[in-house]
Amino acid sequence: MTLRAWRGDITALAVDAVVNAANSSLLGGGGVDGAIHRAAGPQLREYCSKLGGCAVGEARLSPGFGLPARYIIHTVGPIWRGGAQGEPEQLAACYRNSLALAEQHQLQSLAFPAISCGIYGYPLEAAARIAVSELRSGLGAAAHVREVLLVGFSAEQDELYRRLLDA
Ligand code: AR6
What we know:
This protein is α/β, with parallel strands linked by helices. The chain has helices at about 30-40, 40-50, 85-105, 125-140, 155-165, and strands at about 1-5, 15-20, 60-65, 70-75, 110, 145-150. The relative contact order is 0.22. Ligand AR6 binds near residues 29, 35, 114, 118 and 119.
């Protein structure tokens, strides 16, 4: 099992599943969600409209449609409200439930964006620490998932992941 940092556009990755930082409607939005919907094409919105939404911390699977990735795991991160409103637990649940869904579908490779770290305002380092610790503990018990990429879109995000993964 490997957990590593990768810098770039998540929509370019030919992994089994890319994770989308969605909103609870699952109908698309800005940021990485917008990029994934644009690259996957209109069939994605059509498919997601039948999923009935997704609560914060939960995860749903769709095909990748026009993406090089076979599947998309949509998860909904918490909106940062200062950190005392359950945000760390909700963010940890996003990573845990996305990994569990990948395991259920016997997927081997995944890529995660920095869930909640854009429009939802979660502080980068606190979020990255949660991502690394949840994935490290989850991957120890995973039977199928072999490789997980933590995708940094900015140099700052990428360097942060590399530092935490080296520690
Ligand atoms: N590839 C990889 N990472 C990206 C990409 C990309 N193409 N584009 C942005 N990022 P955000 P959130 C990074 O705002 O904070 C949407 O409207 C970005 O730099 O996409 O969870 C949804 O519909 C940041 O580090 O997601 C929700 O309403 C990270 O992805 C809301 O935004 C997440 O930023 C979710 O907000």
